[in-house]
Amino acid sequence: METFMLDRQDLPSFLAACEKHRRVHVPVEEAPDHFIFKPLAEATDQPVALHYLRTALPPKKYFFPAEEVLYRFDADGYHPQQPDLPPMILFGLHPCDLHGLDVLDHFFSRDYPDRTYHSRRQQAWLIGLGCMPDEHCFCQSQGTEHVDGLYDLFLWDLGPQFYVMVRTEAGHDMLHMARALFKPVSQANQQAYLALLKKRRQAFTLHMPVADLPQVLEVKQDCAVWDKIGETCFTCGACSMVCPTCTCYDMLDRMDLSGQCGERCRKWSSCLFRDFDRGAGDHHFRRDRGDRVKNRYYHKEHGYVNGFGKPSCTGCGRCITACPAGIDVISVFTKVRRACGGEEEVVS
Predict the structure, then answer these.
(1) Residue 196 to residue 245: CA distance in whole angstroms
(2) Helix or strand (DSSP H, E) at 26
(3) Neighbours of 39 (CB within 10 A)
(4) What are phi and psi of 104, to 5 degrees?
């Protein structure tokens, strides 16, 4: 891996050079404390939000859209729809969101790889951006506070300059779109970078030990805590919609009024919705609200760990800030641990 320095004042020039080759998307502050990823070309009066911590919707929206047409059908058969995302550069991804995309990559690459997801994913080059945690970040506990190999370029903000790490061939291609802007790294730069990482490690205030969490959940399958949380949860699905790794979706067919053709659509859903698992005969696998709440948390920290060796929660904190009932993942697992009769192991 090669490293370079980029002056802060040169970042707009670098992004402008990239925009000549690929459409660049950046984080911007759309409203006070409301951040979104947006095409750079449409953010002419909005500066790149280098200070943001979490966008309203995670980057999965680009590759697994909230709603999309998968097929159109008529008397001649089925006609797959090709994704319409042109080659792009997604700038400013924090480590937790890069890990989130890694989870999605794995999910959509299983036995039957998802064609539309991967078509979009292969069109994207990723530029990471370091961050400083707030009171809702617990990515350190989830092991997602750093990344290796999940980005093409990565920028750490050292104040007047960025410490730039080049990981892939695509990263080199972006570097050479504005090669004159990048400078050699000095020993002082390296020391400043390491000091930043140390400061960042010490800045985390929210912690959630997860090493034994799958085992705790395994023995507390019948824990009454879930019913209590279910009484509070609105099952609105907000936590699922903002989650960078949730992949619940629904399928629906829209027929043309002529009855001769139609389209099959996929749209985001949530396992918290009452009808998500509704089957024939009005059968529900998880009719009770507490069961649906339990299912969501078990999927994150138990089922995914057993199946894939790691939790699917990235610790980004979006679900904590989005929940209208004030439920947060830390307190949920704290209550489950208490129900075990064990010591208070979770610190927040």
Answers:
(1) 28
(2) strand 23-31
(3) 13
(4) -65, -40
H-assigned helices in the chain:
11-19, 60-63, 95-107, 115-121, 139-142, 169-175, 187-203, 213-219, 225-232, 238-242, 289-298, 304-308, 318-322, 329-339
Is 200 in contact with 42 (CB distance < 8 Å)? no
| pLDDT tens-place string over residues 182-233 | 999 999 999 999 999 999 999 999 988 888 888 888 887 788 889 999 999 9
Q: Distance of CA 3 to CAs 153, 196, 253, Å?
A: 10, 16, 50
Edge-to-edge strand list for the sheet holding 182-183: 34-39, 23-31, 88-93, 124-129, 153-157, 161-166, 2-7, 182-183
| Nearest-10 Cα torsion for 66, 71, 72, 74 | -150
pLDDT at 347: 46
* Exposure string over 62-71, b if 16+ CB within 10 A, otherwise e: bbbbeebeee
The tokens of 160 are what? 């007047």
Q: Which of 329, 339, 316, 328 is nearest to 217 (CA)?
A: 339
Instruction: State pLDDT tens for residues 172-189.
Output: 999 999 999 999 999 999
DSSP class of 229: H
The first and second tokens of residue 110, run together, are: 């299983």
- Separation of alpha carbons 207 and 172, rounded Å: 36
262 - beta bridge partners?
Answer: 73, 255
